[in-house]
Write a structure and sequence with these properties.
Layout lengths: L1 H27 L14 E4 L2 E4 L4 E7 L2 E6 L5 H10 L7 E2 L4 E4 L5 H35 L5 H34 L2
Antiparallel strand pairs: 1-2, 3-4, 4-6, 5-6
Helix pairs in contact: 1-3, 1-4, 3-4
Length: 184
């Protein structure tokens, strides 16, 4: 039945979105090397409106331990510097009048463990979202009328298989991220 297929597709879409969100969250968790992703969520007050940093400046990584930010409008350099400090990313920006340099300090063992714990927390949150998608899909199934119990049981099994698949994907992503974080 078409209704059953739509429910399964909806559940799968929600689970895929949860995994994409996990990947985005992992990009913000630093793993020792400088990356433009570290500052992508910084919002700069630019002519009275909050603007993402990549829309007011060129963000690049000249080497493994440095992020360079070159504003397109030289008047915005102090606003960008202020936004970085206020973002609590732990960087001390240095401003040479033309661009802002962020030195990424090497991670300590303690900090690596904190980041691994943060990655694990993000993964657990994503697994909860996956399980909630399963529950909402099953609730939608139960609302259907005139559908045989055998069909509903089959679709429930399909939804459970999707849940197991996406939970495993989350755990696999976590293993990769933890290895990346703990690598010295």
């Amino acid at each position: 039945m078409e209704e059953l297929d739509l429910i399964v597709e909806s559940v799968q879409h929600d689970m895929e979105a949860a995994v994409k969100h996990l990947d985005h969250a992992f990009q913000r968790i630093r793993a020792g090397r400088a990356s433009t992703n570290m500052v992508q969520d910084v919002m700069v007050e630019y002519y009275g409106s909050m603007t993402p940093i990549n829309q007011v400046a060129n963000v690049s990584v000249p080497d493994a331990m440095t992020i360079s930010i070159q504003p397109w409008d030289s008047k915005a350099i102090n606003d960008i510097e202020k936004a970085i400090v206020n973002s609590n990313l732990g960087f001390a920006p240095s401003n040479n009048g033309i661009n802002i340099i962020l030195n990424v300090p090497p991670l300590t063992e303690e900090r690596r463990r904190e980041l691994a714990k943060q990655a694990k927390g993000e993964t657990e949150d994503t697994k909860i979202v996956v399980r909630n998608a399963r529950q909402s899909g099953i609730k939608e199934l139960k609302k259907l009328e005139g559908v045989s119990e055998d069909l509903i049981k089959g679709v429930e099994a399909d939804i459970q298989a999707l849940t197991d698949k996406y939970v495993k994907i989350c755990e696999d992503h976590l293993k990769v991220k933890e290895a990346e974080i703990m690598k010295v």
